[in-house]
Amino acid sequence: MTVKHLLGISGGKDSAALAIYLNQRHPEIEVEYYTCDTGKELKETYDLIDRLESALGKPIERYQSFEEGKTAIDNPFDHFLAAYGNYLPSSISRWCTKKMKLEPFERNIGDEPTISYVGIRGDENREGYVSKRENIQTIFPYRKNIWSEDVIKIALSKEKLDSFTVGLKKQLNGDALEKALSILATPLGLTFTLKQKTQALLDFNTKAFNHAIHEVLKTTDYPVGKLDNFPLLDNDDVLIIDDIYNILETSGVGVPAYYLPMEYKVEIDGKIETGTYSRSRSGCFFCFYQQKIEWVWLLEQHPALFEAAKKYEMDGYTWSEESLSDLEKPDRVERIKAEHWKRMQRNKAKSSSNATWKDQVLDAEGQGCTSCFV
After folding, report:
1. How far apart (Å, rounded) are the C-alpha atoms in residues 248 and 51?
2. Domains in the chain, ordered, with CATH?
3. Residue 140 CB contacts under 8 Å (≥ 6 apart), including other chains
4. Mind listing the pLDDT tens digit for each residue in 76-115?
5. pLDDT digits (tens, 9 = 90+) for 242-299
6. Phi and psi based region of residue 349 (left: phi greater than 0; alpha: psi -120 to 50; beta: remaining)
7. What does the DSSP assignment read for 183-219?
8. Of the listed ranges 214-223, 316-325, 332-341, 358-367, the one predicted with least confidence
9. Closest to 358 in 3D by CA, of 261, 238, 247, 264
């Protein structure tokens, strides 16, 4: 049976590096690439996608979220904003992700068995998007555990114990098999959770664990189970932030330009200090998950886009708890820079004197969502 392999390109570092990584590490996998354009991305995002297409030697398909030409509105975000009565998206109402990312993704797949590769790194503690559609299975190649939580729950359930055991026996023997079976037989409880059992099996033998999962998936409708061979079963790589930058830099694609630090000046205790700021995420230039310092970055580096973002704030709707009109006031900008500068100094003191702009991006990732869907 034919299984489609898909990788969504968000315009950020992790998905771009994943495309290069899979292309180089597993060229035998026929991956198709796509992106969901909101119509409100930074130019740097489109530049990255163009460079990535050149490096991959394959096109990145543009998924459409609405039929252009049907209305006078010519871009996805404005189209859906009008449909939602000018109600701006927020962390509690992410209609932007739903309408412009998730729905186009699932609509383009249809009913075809599909493996979706997502770039959640090994140093991140989050699951990422997992479709509820039975024909779509999410795989996380950067992590030691490439499987989603729903797969783990099924594979390590009592109902699938025999299949999982068969998988282990095909990979292990002797003392190694007995050890793995002992871990598998240990009952779950407060001191040994499903997550801990998973980690114990992974740490003991990652490849055997993966092949045992595959044996279970053969008894289900999951797309990976329909494959006789899945190359990532034998892959035990764990990629973290430094690996991502290395992939991008050595491939010639480079990091998205909005990650690169720009200097700013700020007065601290009567002394002028120099700090750096940048953007920490891909997505719309007015993403509501931006930190205050990122809004200041947009104000000073892309003033026309900041003005465009301001125009969306109407009828009491704002991108965050304070309006952009208030945020752009000189004294407020100065306070935001001062707070950011002090936080960066504290972070440097906690880590090391060798902290770089890459560490600032990593720090900012913890402040909300790191990407939209991919």
Report:
1. 11
2. 4-151+218-251 (3.40.50), 155-209 (no CATH), 258-365 (no CATH)
3. 117, 118, 119, 120, 128, 146, 147, 148
4. 999 999 999 999 999 889 999 999 999 999 999 989 999 9
5. 999 999 999 999 998 999 999 999 999 999 999 999 998 888 999 999 999 999 999 9
6. alpha
7. HHHSPPBTTB-HHHHHHHHHHH-HHHHHHHHHHHHTT
8. 358-367
9. 261
Pick from 287, 289, 295, 277: nearest CA to 340:
277
As beta bridge partners, residue 60 has 33
DSSP 43-101: HHHHHHHHHHHHHHTS-EEEE-SS-TTSSS--SHHHHHHHHTTT---BTTB-HHHIIII
Give 279: exposed, middle or buried? Use CB within 10 Å, 0-12, 13-18, 19+: buried
Q: Which among 63, 58, 48 is positioned nearest to 17, based on CA atoms?
A: 48
* Each residue's pLDDT tens digit, 316-334: 899 999 999 999 999 999 9
Q: Is 238 strand, coil or helix?
A: coil
DSSP 320: S
Cα 164 to the center of its chain, rounded Å: 30
* pLDDT tens-digit series, residues 100-154: 999 999 999 989 999 999 999 999 988 778 888 889 999 999 999 999 999 999 9
User: Which amino acid type is present at position 72?
Assistant: A
Long-range contacts of 64-69 (CB under 8 A, 24+ apart): 64/104, 65/36, 65/38, 65/99, 65/100, 65/101, 65/103, 65/104
Q: What is the DSSP letter of 106?
A: H
Q: What is the C-alpha separation between 156 and 198, in angstroms, rounded? A: 8
Which residue stretches of 91-193 are H helix?
Answer: 95-97, 103-109, 149-155, 161-171, 174-185
Locate 314 and state its tokens: 């109407």
